[in-house]
Amino acid sequence: MSQQPPVRSTGSPPARPDASMSLLTNVMEHSLDDGYAEASARRAAEGGGLPRTLRAKLGLAAGLVLAALVVTVGAANARIAAPVVAKEREELINRIDAETSDADALERSVDKLRDDVGDRQRKALKTQGGNQGDLVALLAGATEVEGPGVKLVVDDAKGTEQGGDGPREDSGFNDTGRVRDRDMQRVVNGLWESGAEAVAINGQRLTALSAIRAAGDAILVDNRPLVPPYTVLAVGDGKKLSTAFQDSADGQYLHALQENFGIRSSISTESTVRLPAAPSLIVRTAEPNTADAGTGSGQDTADTGKGTS
User: What is the pLDDT, as a whole number, of residue 217?
Assistant: First the structure.
């Protein structure tokens, strides 16, 4: 008896590789939520979201017309106002230029008058000086000076900044490695004591009435600010003046600043140095008292109202 071949069962289909990620598969296959999909379909069936009634259409048209009108009016106002703004700006610039020119003219006039006053004071000083008028004018700084002398340059320590603590803070100086007004005072006094006949700092002539002061970090000479490096020119016997200054207490003080705080300085002998006249002078004169005026009144100086130079 022949046997039928065995029937092979097909079994269940093989499992999907991503069967374990059913949630992720559902999110990828249905990226749009069903509720959103239904609302979108309903809106499309009603006409794509546009108003269907006549009143709604008229309202939309009125809104668009109003928006266009606002934009048009704004552009027109900007176009009208642009020339006015430009004109006002031009007028303001012209006023600034005119005021600047007037200020410059006044400044030139002041400088001219100051020079004229200075010349008259120098002439008066020479006249009042008698036979030694030239010497008096020289000592008072009323005339330019030219002759042999020394050039002393003093500068701040390298890398010194404005303000803040510095190497001199620990020594009770309460400042930095910068050159201070008291340093320049000692330098100038040392040059005078060493035999200098005339002294100038950065082109600023010093007289018996000159003041070296500080304003913040700046050094002022007769209220005029100076900037480092400070070039001090002194007229005199160059070699003797240089040697005497370096051996003096003030010269040793400058050397100590250089050694301890890094303040830089150099001195050289010059065959010719030229110093300008002092920018402004205050001429004071004294008049002798007569025998009658000085008897018992004690007003020998009060009568003239003038001091002595």
Answer: 78
